[in-house]
Amino acid sequence: VVVVTINYRLGAFGYLWLGDHLPDAGLTANAGQLDQIAALEWVRDNIAAFGGDPGNVTIFGESAGAAAVGTLLAMPGAKGLFHKAILQSGTGRAGNREGGQRVADMMLEELGLDRARAAEILAAPADRILEAQTAVAATLTREGGPIFGPVRDGVTLLDQPLSAVRAGAAAQIPVMAGTNRDEVKLFAATVRREEMDDDALLRAVGATLGKPGPEKAREVIGVYRRSRAEKGLPGTNLDILDAVGSDVRFRVGAARLALAQQPHQPDTYLYLFTYASPARRCALGSCHALEMPFVFGTLKAPTQDRFAGSGPGVDQLAERMMDAWIAFARTGRPGHEGIGRWDAYTEPGRPTMVFDLECGQEDDPFGEERRAVEAVL
Hints:
Layout: H1 11-15, H2 31-46, E1 58-62, H3 64-72, E2 84-88, H4 97-110, H5 126-143, H6 161-166, E3 175-180, H7 185-188, H8 198-208, H9 214-231, H10 237-261, E4 268-273, H11 279-282, H12 292-296, H13 304-308, H14 312-331, E5 351-355, E6 360-363, H15 367-374
């Protein structure tokens, strides 16, 4: 394979939507996504000179990168520029124009501008825009709302990525998606947390689920407690909260995307990464981003052994994952001799490849937890 990595604009520079404030300025929404499309056009026009095949391009990304991939699946401007897609721990979600207008108004206010002077933002120093972006992001984060991301502007992006995929926008593109079992433990590790009592857990799970009511939240907690105990996984109240959060924020979305794509494209696959990091006495579990050194084969990078571990089993897992990613890029099917059979993701079985020191396909792993969460989302 020939691997191309790209840069694209982030934050206000990539996703501030000023089109409704400056309708005659020729501004477009989703500049960060359009940067990615420009990079794909470069690949189409130039990759043959590097030994690549412009007719067999796979895009893949992790976290925000996976959200970008999911958004590209829905964008008319990206059509025909790539032929397969891999989404690692993310699927993509777009705000509406009203939300984009509010973020733009907040940015203008931070810069001391009103709507009548909106054009002055185009001449503002980059440092001032970054300062305003930081302030706006802090406010929006406290409110729990979207920050800077794709906007359904009706031109570059017409619909939510999931809705577009469900309608067949990416019908010609094989898709592989997946998540890590304990995604949110990486983010939890960045803050100091005290163990919570049952009442605090009930409130926290209710908030994570969108406040479905205490009885529903209590039912979900019970399902997760039983499931984790049966599987021999850590089951403190913080562990339960992290498990629910990981499914709500990551796993449910990946499964929904796969089911939305599968009727249009039989080559649609789902994985679950369950290998646990040895870091912090294994407190991180199978956290967000842990699959990255396995996918890229960077286990020997300095200090990586502290995060990803080391030894023959770890090396073998990396080889098996790299082979799966390469097989998918070449053929649209990720199964290979090292991991065995990997069927397309379909109901009712929901076959899923589980990546761990021992790899293998399972039908709907942690299905009872998924069903409990999906019932209230």
